[in-house]
Amino acid sequence: MSQTSCSQESAVARAVRTGEWNETLEVHLRECAICRGVQEAARWMQALAPAAQRSAQSQNDLPDPQILWLRAQLSERQAAAERAQKVLRWVEVACVMAACAGLSIWLAWNWNGIGGEIADRLGWALFDAWPAFWANLYAYGPVNSPILFSSALAVISFVAIGVAYPLLARE
Ligand SMILES: [Zn+2]
Is there a single domain that holds both residue 76 and residue 30? Predict the structure, then answer.
């Protein structure tokens, strides 16, 4: 009849746990296969225990729900600030556009008074500098300088928007 249990089992398990061995237990361990099995099992349990403790601790290390909530609030606020900044930039661009349009309309209306002098200066740059270009343009139909000047401003503002838009879109 083979033995399946030993009276010293619990003593061996306790010794493994505490690390306190006495001589009689060590002598018994050498003679008793059951207690050697118990010792081995107890050592395995001890080796596994720190890992279990670590995983329990990592659960404790999980961020506090309140901290998560605060972080979410903060990022929400940052996103709102970024949106506001983007809107502000668009307002700036719109203002520049409106100013350009207003200036060109005003210049078109008051061309005879103020435009004359500007036309004299710009006229040289625009008309005398590129005679071939303007000669070609005039060939397509009657063009007067206020309309030309206004459309030049409009083109400039559109170019400005074309430059500004990719910059805004990238951010
Ligand atoms: Zn035993």
Answer: no
